[in-house]
Amino acid sequence: MDAMSNLVVATVVFYLLSTLGYFGYLYMQREPWQKFGYGLLGAGFVCHTALIAYAFARFGSLPAHNLHQTLVLVGWAVTAFFFVFQYRFKLKVMGIYAAPLAAFVMIISSRLPVEPAQVQAHFRSVWVVFHVVIILIGEAAFAMACGVGILYLLQEHAIKHKKRGFFYRRLPSLELLDSTGYACIVSGFTLLTIGLIGGFLYAKIVWGRFWSGDPKEVWSGIMWLFYAGLLHERLAVGWRGRKSAIMSIIGFVVLLFTFLGVNMLFEGHHGEFTQW
Known about the structure:
Layout lengths: L2 H26 L2 H29 L7 H23 L5 H16 L15 H35 L5 H5 L3 H34 L7 H23 L4 H24 L11
Helix pairs in contact: 1-2, 1-4, 2-3, 3-4, 3-5, 5-7, 5-9, 7-8, 8-9
């Protein structure tokens, strides 16, 4: 195996071992298990970063030329945002969501064709790096909000049915989960907005227009409007708790369709990012 293959294998192994550590922490609630999972996730992230840096040097541009490479970036963004999330909120149990998600994305990526299509000149621009990386980290924030929403619903169910069982004893309060999910959505929306602006500016440079009606652009706009509406309803109407959690999960479904479904069903100049 070449260096890239070795780094992919190392990243996947560390992420899987981290997942085991976080499952151990969820089940036994002992700090060494959390530290074990967190440390292995960090080791996987180092390998993951080295993989992207190696690919960047090899291809001379951001490695996002097919679905394999784009998923590698997605997995990296999920892990990167989780470390920021963990530093800010100290919500250790979220590793049970982030670690297996990163592992799953990398496993799927490893099963796809590796060699990209011919690198286009416009891929070598710093604007592409800015646009893609910022948007992917923003989408990772939305993925984390979805995970928090799932935990919220589990905890709420336990409380409403007065079941002081497995999840009730292991999950944070509803208030903490709600405020954390809101922070993730605000972070994701901010990054998505910045990333889209960067994309519009670069489109003007390359194609001579800010907007071309590309299906990916249309659905990115729909996704932006969805989260804008969610934030508006929370601030103006007072949507919190269960409604916010459910909408976070629905929003992530919209995100997945925008990321994968659009390019499978429609043709556009963003298709090269997720071609097989």
